[in-house]
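Input record, target 12 of the design panel.
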């Protein structure tokens, strides 16, 4: 069994100010660098097989504290880079809605439309899934850390669990520095933990590998998210997300329908 730890990078000025960052190579803030250290503090005694990131410095910097402690190389993979948001790069959602209200309305109704002059979310899901397929060839079992970006991780989650890609913005919230754990078997993926951020809080400053406290970091089944690549409303997935309890399961590679306009 291959356990994928899918970690969103730490805070940047773009995530803090709720702006579309996309392929802008933004660095971590001081708070983001602390998030990276806190993840390493919590997970450095897990037996890691490999560390894979996007090519952006915000993901490389997030992975560096753990990699340095373990003496493991970081393998950057451009297929895990964030989606290019085209004309909306650097904008807030409000600014994008004012600049192009018609397209913004279409995107709100069906995010597979994508940003004007931007990358297709369907294409992003294809390249990201290809990176995971190659990773599974390299690592047949064990624990592997993948550090990427909010939109990429959400699309990957949908592809791996068989969720309709048109729901990628509403299916789960993914704060900066949060990690989800998926177990990949033969033709099936199981979500053991979703967007766990307990390692970022002082009361949880312990090795989460050895102890899991179900009272911290469990997302609710419904989410509201104000981040630019997130949802503006609640989802309707009826999912329990505590470790080993009612885990989400899906056939890998499902939900391929790109939706209208993708």
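The sequence produced for target 12 reads:
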């Amino acid at each position: 069994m291959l356990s994928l730890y899918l970690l969103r990078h730490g805070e940047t000025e773009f995530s803090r100010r709720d702006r579309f960052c996309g392929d802008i190579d933004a660095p971590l803030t001081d708070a983001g660098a602390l998030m990276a250290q806190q993840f390493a503090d919590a997970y450095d005694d897990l037996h890691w097989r490999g560390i894979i990131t996007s090519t952006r410095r915000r993901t490389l910097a997030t992975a560096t504290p753990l990699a340095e402690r373990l003496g493991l190389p970081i393998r950057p993979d451009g297929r895990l880079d964030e989606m290019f948001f085209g004309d909306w790069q650097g904008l807030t959602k409000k600014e994008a809605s004012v600049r192009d209200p018609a397209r913004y309305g279409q995107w709100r109704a069906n995010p597979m439309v994508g940003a004007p002059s931007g990358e297709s979310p369907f294409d992003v899901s294809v390249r990201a899934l290809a990176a995971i397929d190659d990773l599974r060839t390299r690592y047949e079992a064990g624990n592997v850390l993948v550090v990427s970006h909010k939109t990429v991780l959400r699309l990957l989650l949908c592809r791996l669990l068989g969720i309709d890609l048109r729901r990628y913005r509403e299916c789960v919230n993914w704060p900066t520095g949060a990690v989800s754990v998926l177990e990949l078997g033969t033709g099936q993926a199981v979500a053991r933990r979703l967007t766990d951020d307990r390692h970022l809080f002082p009361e949880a400053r312990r090795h989460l590998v050895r102890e899991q406290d179900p009272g911290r970091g469990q997302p609710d089944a419904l989410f509201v998210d104000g981040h630019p690549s997130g949802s503006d409303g609640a989802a309707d997935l009826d999912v329990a997300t505590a470790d080993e309890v009612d885990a989400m399961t899906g056939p890998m590679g499902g939900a391929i329908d790109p939706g209208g306009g993708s």
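Residues 121-138 form the longest helix (18 residues).
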